[in-house]
Prior knowledge:
This protein is α+β, with helices and mostly antiparallel strands.
Amino acid sequence: MLGAMTSIRGRLNAIDVLLTLFVVGIGVVLMIGDVSDEGASWLAVPLFLPVTLTMLWRRSSPLGALAAAAVAVAGHIALFGTITRCGVFLPLQFFLVFSAAARLGWRGSFLGLALSLAGMTVMLGWDKSAGIDALPYAGMLVLGVWVVGRIVHTVVVKAERLREQTAELRGARDERARLEVAMDRARLSAQLDELLHRRLGELAALADRGIDEEGAAATATLVDIEHGSRRTLEEMRAIVGVLRSDAEGDPMAPQPTLTHLEAMILRAKGAEARLTVEGSPRVLPAGVELSAYRIVEHLLDAIGDAPDVAVRIGFRDDALDIAVAGPAARRGAAATAIERARERVALHSGTLEAATHGGRAEALAHLPIAPAI
């Protein structure tokens, strides 16, 4: 609606037509009374219609409407001389000058004010009821309406600029989110690359050591190579799984970590939900941190909303424990959420136990953390 206020182009709508019909009807009624009282020609009634019909273009072309109204009233005066016209012409000018002031810039609005004053001067010069003496008062009223229109124009322009700035800020925020996502993915990719270089180097060293070995020693070396290869594949699968599953989510959102848990719990379950951290908090591998965040998110979906929701994070030397407890949610929704959490846990070869007792659900996830080499 604000955009339409400042537009000088626009199609006619139902409001324009109804308002114009109202003004035309009032004009016809008043002109019939004036003609009857003043003994003027009855042709003055239908020929006054061009004056009131200018209301139809108050939005699409306010200056054209003001100019047409002035020319139409001048023609009416030339044909019928001095009769009463102020009862319709003055309110019509208020509508038209407000539209010009609210929709046009300074130059157009000043021109609209000048056209309105010129039309009123011509009309009052040959008006039987008001007369030219009423011009100062009518001019002050029109000026007041014009000022109100300029205030509306200023407010609308500021609102439009605010919308544009909001759109620009939203674009900047989205771009920043894209950069954060790209940085997180680059970090996970770098972690995967580092893992491959380190583990392949370890496997190569084991293979070199086993070249000169025989018997049981060679067998033990092969077993070490097999175990190292499986461990490398599992860690690669975990990191690639995190990248793949996260790509299926919101690509605009930055990768969350355990430091974002409190805010997420607050959003999901309210200010009375409790978060407890045990052990020695530390920075974990990016894949583990993201999976732990998502596991808590899924487990919160599996419980209902209540003040006694509790989340516990336990930092162990070789594992991360996650416990979530709260009122049991609907069985179908809870089962789906727990299954999604279980898939996350499986990426890291962990375990997840979930149970419901007396209307209260509890879940405990255990994520092994490979020691740094």
